[in-house]
Amino acid sequence: MEQRYATHPAQVPGMDTAALRDTYLVExxxxxxxxxLVYTHHDRIVLGGAVPAGAELALPVPPExxxxxxxxxxxxxxxxxxxxxxxxxxxxxxLLPNGACLYLGRGTRDVVLSDDPxxxxxxxxxxxxxxxxxxxxxxxxxxxxxxxxxxLGDQLTSNRRTLHQYIHExxxxxxxxxxxxTELHPGSMWNTMPAHTHDRRTxxxxxxxxxxxxxxxxxxxEPTETRHLVVADRQAVISPSWSVHSGVGxxxxxxxxxxxxxNQRFDDMDVVPATEVR
Length: 278
Description:
Jelly Rolls, seven-stranded antiparallel beta sheet, 23 strands, isomerase, metal-binding
């Protein structure tokens, strides 16, 4: 499991492009036939991807966690950004079409990920987001369209978007994880503007359905000392609590947003007017 250590905002001005990407961008989330995991010391989040590629993949047990199984002291949210998937958790089978979200609570011991044998088309690609858990909540599957749906933004400001909340305080319950998927409307490119921070939670973005010749320019850093990452399809960004996380694409795209930290209120954010961003 790759380790990414926590950073202080004062470090950002001294980073060049390579250092920024090495610190905050996860370029290889999905590797055929593997489960990849990255441990960020920001809120002790583990994120990664699983690509069964016709095989069955068990959730690994990284030695860095000093646990008998991955979810011994953790919970995980799983969003399928590929073809039909199957997840078997402690003998219970869940079928995940593209865009579905599965929550597995603390204490779920045996988890096997695979393609749905009844599915057609491209193989499954499962995005994993895990955080420490103090108690156990029930496992739950949310299919596309079943979560809380919010319409945000405006076409005039190029940020009209549909936000699907899956794991949150008024939906699937969890200890820390808050998770969902946002889809930009045609002609809209900004995923969040005005930008914001929430100095109580770390947030990670997984950008997907980005065309091969397109990119997303993701703003990061303190509001008065921003930098940017140029992000390709199915790459993830780690955004510390003190950092803005706002992006604009050269084409349409979707992204999985996921947070963990001090609270679970989606609207608990500190908005930064565009006139104050530097």
